[in-house]
Amino acid sequence: MQSQKSGGIKYSTSEGTGQNPGVYMDNSGIVFAHKCEGKETFLLLYKKGEKIPAYEIPFPSPSVCGGTSAVKVRFPAGGEYEYNFQTDGRIITDSRARQISGREVFGMAASEEPHSVRGVVLRKKYDWRGDVLPNLPYENAVMYQLHVRGYTMQKNSGVRHKGTFRGLMEKLPYIKSLGVNQLRLMPAYEFDELIKPLSEKLPAWAKPPVPTEENTPRRINFWGYTGGYYFAPKSSYASEPARAACEFMDLIRACHKEQIEVIMEFFFGDEMDFKTIADCLEFWAEEYHIDGFAVIARDSVTAELGRLPLFAERKLICSWFGQDTLDHRASKTRRMLAESNDGFRDDCRRFLKGEGGCLENFSVRIRRNPANHATVNYITHHDGFTLMDLVSYDCKHNEANGEMGRDGSDFNLSWNCGAEGPTRKREILQLRLRQIKNAFAMMLLSQGTPMLLAGDESGNSQDGNNNPYCHDSELAWIDWSLKRRESIQALTSFVKDLISFRQKHPILHMACELSCMDLHSSGYPDLSFHSSNAWFGAFESANCHLGCMYDGRYADEDCFLYIAYNMHWTPQEFALPQLPPQMAWQRVIDTSEKDSFIQGGERTSYEKEKSFEVHPRTVVVLEAYKRKDHVPEKGSVPSDLGKDKGTL
After folding, report:
1. Under a CB-based contact definition with an 8 Å cutoff, are residues 183 and 146 in contact?
2. pLDDT, tens digit (0-9, with 9 covering 90-100), for 415-426
3. What integer pLDDT is reported at residue 566 of this predicted model?
4. 433/556 same-domain check
5. Angstrom distances, CA of residue 269 to CA of 274, 298, 299, 379, 434
6. Element (H, E) at 66
7. Is 615 within the bounds of a domain?
8. Is residue 146 part of a domain?
9. Whether the Cβ atoms of residue 187 and residue 265 lie closer than 8 Å to each other
10. Tell me: the pLDDT tens digits for 506-529?
11. What's the rounded Cα separation, in Å, for the pair 284 and 270?
């Protein structure tokens, strides 16, 4: 250990510390640890606002090749400092910096001056003021995926700090009012939002005939699914970039105060080593109180991540884990792993548009709820059509991307309801609105964790573009002006009421998978399927309708629910299973109605009827209620319960 003084600071050096690279605080100073790899390396310290370093402090050369060396700096009171490393004359910004300066404006290239991008020395510990993580079980969560900048960037967003963490904080009352209790943030770490011009990515035969000028600006990577400074929040997402870390922590603490969890999305390329990935996620969990992570990485990485002790307490969402990892985690803790469910998306889209041959898959998707991990169910997410575009376009319209229509999926399973894109035809607009409600019903009345794409609840459109990754413009921002329309207000209210209905009925969001068996010997299974015949689910390929009855007593509520899905273009008859004698059915939700949640005095009751009709492309929900005129009879049992009840 060597102690020295340089100008107004004191520092000491050591080698072979055994620490991970990065910056750490202790009681006597700030430690800068770096892998010098046997090369001459200096710590460069800059006073904030100055262009050249005020101090150059040498790292000791480690005795072992690739070893970590450290410099501990004791700063004078006051003053703000930034830093870089210099190795063999090359300026390097710390890949583990906890905040970055020099990238404060979204979409603007950093200066080419070598000292322009720097790590920021954070010398104050954040006061979390007793922050407590909500720690929600997956089955009680309603997830909401959004882009921090795009969510409030529109001039009509109604917030003061547009496109920032603070702008998102201003929207928390609205998000809370929806019933959402889990925010899933698209990349909010310090990613590089500038990518090469299109002409540099295309093969020679596909390049434009006119050569691209050398000064052509680089394109925007708006979404952020790329590498970057993984340990720093995105400074351009802060209203005051110098306080980016603090503002992000303020957002998380505000969410937790409202019992809303925060899930961060991360993209890790194949070049990332596992230890750095694990260090990154552990850092955000510890320093930022992040509740969980949605990780995009190669399968071998996600399988290994699922075994980390971190994910006994924090949530991890991936597309694949491997059975060994799922079994390992299930034997130790409650469910903290979840899979992103593309299968739910595709089967629900097929059913929504009325394709044949998908009923059996749909029936599996809406009850799938594995014991060793959760499922995140969605019909739309950032990559693809919004829900409004899903019912307004048959084909993608990505011309604005400048990639000659070769980007974005051609496999959208969408239907435009009779006209491509905008239309004034009232019957088409009404059908589109009903289809959107049907999609929300499929998500929010299914087991698992539903994930809504921000803006879908207010009819947000991207003009048929299913891959607007390169647009930092009104095309990709949420349009809040739509909420002034009466039909959109009704849609938003429907979503709020549907989330509330889901939370009111535990049988719709169980902690374990429904068995479709009469485990209580009560005469009723927890879930059963029906068609024009009670207790018989007609899964023939030509059918596009299905009745689902839930016995709420399996979730300790004295209630039955019957959900009738009719995605056929003609009305369909649904048989009504006989209830216990003291109960009768009443219609509480009907997506074909303008006011889809039916008020008590207007509800249709079915006391003696054995069937009811559902309009084309409509979801109807019946709820059982206790009849006031019923006189109990001892020994009475339902008459239509056969030996095949509850089977698929």
Report:
1. yes
2. 999 999 999 999
3. 98
4. no
5. 11, 8, 11, 26, 40
6. none
7. yes
8. yes
9. yes
10. 999 999 999 999 999 999 999 999
11. 21
Question: Cα separation of 67 and 529, whole Å?
Answer: 63
What would the two tokens of residue 251 be?
């957002």
What is the residue-wise DSSP string for 364-414? HHTT---SSSEEEE-S--SSS--HHHHTT-SS---GGGSSTT-SS-S----
Is residue 67 classed exposed, middle or buried when 0-12, 13-18 and 19+ CB atoms within 10 A define those classes? middle
CA distance 358 to 360: 6
What single-letter DSSP state applies at residue 115? T
Q: Per mean pLDDT, which range of 45-54, 56-65, 426-435, 443-452 is the poorest?
A: 56-65
pLDDT value at residue 639: 40
| Pick from 366, 464, 456, 376: nearest CA to 415 | 464
Q: pLDDT per residue over 165-213, tens digit each? A: 999 999 999 999 999 999 999 999 999 999 876 545 545 544 444 444 4
Query: Domain tally for the chain?
Result: 3
278-287 exposure pattern, b = at least 16 Cβ within 10 A, e = fewer: ebbbebbbee
Query: The CATH number of the domain where 66 resides is what?
Result: 2.60.40.10
| Residues 386 and 465 both lie in one domain | yes
Per the prediction, the chain carries an average pLDDT of 91
Q: What is the residue-wise DSSP string for 278-310? A: HHHHHHHHHHH---EEEEE--HHHHHHHTTSGG
Q: What percent of the chain stands above pLDDT 70?
A: 90
Cα gap 268→274, rounded to integer Å? 10
Cα 185 to Cα 376: distance, rounded to the nearest angstrom: 15
Residue 38 CA: distances (Å) to CA of 14, 51, 69, 552: 14, 28, 10, 67
The tokens describing 402, both together, are: 């400048």
Q: Are 120 and 255 in contact (CB under 8 A)?
A: no
Domain containing residue 245: 141-508
Residue 170 one-letter amino acid: E
- Is 398 strand, coil or helix? coil
Helix (H, G, I), strand (E, B), or coil: what is residue 43? strand
Maximum Cα interatomic distance, the chain, rounded to a whole number of Å: 94
Q: Quote helix, strand, coil % in the chain, to nearest 5.
A: 25, 25, 50
What is the CB-side half-sphere exposure of residue 636 using CA atoms within 13 A? 11
DSSP 8-class letter at 597? B
Within 13 Å of residue 331, how many CA atoms lie on the same side as its CB?
A: 7
- Within a domain: residue 247? yes
- 170's tokens: 């201003």
Q: Please determine, for residue 600, whether its predicted confidence score (pLDDT) is greater than 50.
A: yes
- The span from the CA of 442 to the CA of 589, in Å, is 13
Q: How far apart are CA 175 and CA 110, in angstroms?
A: 34
